[in-house]
Design a protein that fits this description.
662 residues, Arc Repressor Mutant, subunit A, Rossmann fold, five-stranded antiparallel β-sheet, 12% strand
Length: 662
């Protein structure tokens, strides 16, 4: 509405001042007070910019660039001129990077874009031009605007004409309001276009626990998870995954910093208070780049309706986001059923441990989480999330038992019986078909169904990436990995490291893994990945050292010592043979079942007969091997440690029996 009236004013003003338009003089200057354009007011005296009265945070360099561009409206300001005025010759800084970052921050503050500029137009490798229509805040001083790409000077309109112009504007506004402005939502779309920042991507910062008991963190984290899960179903919006969002729990970083790191427009932050049988949630939507408040609300309900409360919050946020997207589409979410408070408590406790926030680690922690999920099911046999949690707690284990496979399969199928539209359960069913049943077409169908149900689920894209690499559909796999990384920009990127390896980019995979280990040097999975990459490249000494570290981190100190002694006494290949012997020892003593890993070491050492022995063993005992965290037969073709076996007829026969594409 404001935008439309401003356009009416521009037309009317142009009608009564056309005879006074003249070419601008060579010198340029705005009113000392500042400039106004499209709802923005730039105060040169105080170095501030406001939008509809609200101050927008803008650093000094972006502000000075805006001031320079406004002093030359419609004219190209070269990059060299900006450097001369803002980065003097004696300033030691990367000018190109500094200017690009400053322009980006300026555009973020204005809600502008390089692709479809409203204010700042880029001339590649040359400079920038201000293309908006602007007026001086102090009316008696000359103000310049851009019309048809040409800078012109507008002098002040005499008072009688001003009154006529104002009257005309009000009349046009009256006509527009009462004769169809809001038909088809036109008013809303115009309002959004003119005055509201556009939200295409969103992150939910962990909801703060306002309960008096600090042990209630599991509850606030669970509410954050539920909110992210629901929002991820809005297909037109990119929603950052929980693993990346959770890293900002109690963070001291500013919202613009978080928005920039996660590459999002919108941020949801809020609080949770759980007291007795009542739950209260507050939520607010922030335009991240400018730390601009857009919406807030609070909700309170009985604990039995906590997921209904979450759904209401999601739908309200969805309406706000969709308004800013200027589209009619709304998320369609199934209404949740009431939940037993005891079952909810057990589920949230289990989820807290499964996500790594409790004490302990590895299989023991997962088993502990599984006990909570089972208790939730015992209390409420129709509680869908608990079945999904139970399946997860018995998957990807270091030491799977003979009972784990049955628990995973039964829990997954029961979850889908209760809720066929559970994206997480669909992913788990896809995993079962992929790894246990070797039903590859069925697995892909389940992954695709999960993606349709929850387009922003990073885990779905990661899992589909792994599946596509196993099928040797490398281009598709690369795209899915890229989407996963965009949805989880600061999360667990071990899969991204493997994706580089599967794509044949060994050196980049090694470099990426080494970079990640600087953050967490005790990540045994990354050390194991490096062992594989080095072995594949024939760097046996480095491979042996990484294998030694891996054994130590996973608790096999004797095995690590044996590998170290073999490396010192007999050299690189002897150390790798010792790695194979240690893994065989694990299998013989029931400490773990990793036959494909043993086969891979034997293949690297060109011991083909031993490699095929263990591959056949994995085939015979597939009911157990598919639950492990590491290499399995469905990755037979994509695992590059088996390159030396590919020409052997036994390899081709095994590929056929597994059902992989020839």
């Amino acid at each position: 509405m404001v935008w439309l009236i401003s356009q009416c004013y521009t037309l009317v003003r142009g009608r009564f001042t056309s005879s006074m338009i003249q070419e601008p003089p060579s010198s340029r200057g705005w009113a000392a007070g500042g400039v106004r354009f499209s709802g923005f007011e730039v105060d040169f005296r105080n170095g501030e910019i406001r939008k509809n009265g609200s101050r927008i945070r803008l650093q000094d360099q972006p502000f000075r660039i805006l001031q320079i561009l406004l002093e030359h409206p419609g004219e190209l300001v070269t990059r060299e001129e900006l450097q001369r005025q803002i980065w003097p010759a004696d300033t030691f800084v990367d000018f190109e990077k500094g200017l690009n970052n400053a322009i980006k921050r300026l555009r973020d503050a204005l809600g502008d874009s390089a692709e479809q500029p409203r204010f700042i137009e880029t001339h590649p490798k040359r400079g920038y031009r201000f293309i908006g229509s602007a007026t001086a805040i102090e009316g008696t001083v000359r103000a310049e605007a851009v019309a048809n790409g040409k800078a012109v000077t507008l002098t002040r309109v005499p008072a009688p004409y001003r009154q006529l112009a104002i009257g005309t504007i009000l009349f046009l506004a009256f006509v527009v309001i009462f004769f169809g402005l809001d038909v088809g939502g036109l008013r809303q779309r115009l309002w959004v276009k003119g005055d509201s920042p556009v939200i295409h991507s969103l992150a939910v910062i962990p909801l703060a626990n306002l309960s008096n008991d600090p042990n209630q963190e599991y509850f606030s984290d669970g509410m954050t998870d539920a909110l992210i899960t629901d929002l991820a179903q809005i297909g037109s919006l990119k929603v950052i995954s929980r693993t990346s969002s959770m890293q900002y729990k109690q963070s001291k970083k500013s919202l613009p910093e978080i928005a920039r790191e996660l590459n999002v427009d919108g941020i949801i932050e809020g609080t949770v208070q759980h007291s007795g049988d009542r739950v209260r949630i507050t939520a607010q939507l922030i335009y991240g780049p400018a730390d601009k408040h857009l919406w807030a609300n609070s909700y309170e309900r009985d604990i039995r309706d906590v997921f209904g409360l979450e759904r209401t919050v999601t739908e309200d946020i969805g309406r706000q986001i969709q308004a800013h997207l200027a589209t009619e589409k709304q998320p369609t979410l199934a209404q949740p059923r009431p939940v037993n408070p005891e079952a909810l408590e057990a589920y949230l406790q289990g989820n807290y441990r499964l996500n790594g926030f409790g004490k302990g680690s590895g299989d023991d922690e997962k088993k502990n989480a599984g006990e909570y999920f089972q208790h939730a099911i015992d209390v409420d046999p129709n509680f869908v999330p608990a079945y999904k949690g139970l399946a997860d707690s018995h998957s990807d284990l270091m030491w799977p038992s003979s009972q784990d496979a049955g628990i995973v399969t039964k829990a997954t199928k029961r979850a889908l019986e209760l809720d066929p539209n559970s994206a997480d359960a669909r992913v788990k069913l896809g995993d079962i078909k992929f790894s246990r049943d070797w039903d590859f077409s069925g697995a892909e169908e389940e992954y695709r169904r999960a993606m349709a149900l929850s387009p922003n689920n990073a885990n779905v894209h990661t899992t589909l990436c792994i599946f596509l690499y196993a099928m040797e559909r490398r281009d598709e796999a690369g795209r899915e990995c890229q989407i996963s990384q965009e949805l989880d920009p600061t999360g667990d990127h071990r899969r991204d490291v493997d994706a580089l390896y599967w794509a044949g980019k060994d050196d980049r995979a090694i470099q990426f893994a080494q970079t990640l280990l600087k953050t967490d040097p005790n990540d045994g999975f990354l050390h194991h990945a490096l062992y594989r990459y080095y072995a594949r490249k024939g760097m046996y000494k480095e491979a042996s050292q990484e294998a030694e570290t891996t054994l130590a981190l996973f608790g096999d100190l004797d095995g690590a010592l044996h590998v170290q002694n073999a490396l010192v006494a007999s050299g690189d290949r002897a150390a790798l043979r010792q790695v194979a012997r240690e893994l065989e020892h694990w299998i013989s003593t029931a400490q773990g079942y990793f036959p494909v890993n043993v086969a891979a070491v034997c293949a690297i050492l060109d011991d083909k007969d031993r490699a095929f022995y263990w591959l056949e063993d994995a085939y015979k005992h597939h009911d157990r091997a598919w639950l492990t965290t590491d290499m399995s037969l469905e990755s037979l073709k994509s695992e590059r440690m088996f390159d030396s076996l590919r020409s052997d007829p036994r390899f081709k026969d095994l590929v056929r029996r597994v059902g992989l594409p020839p």
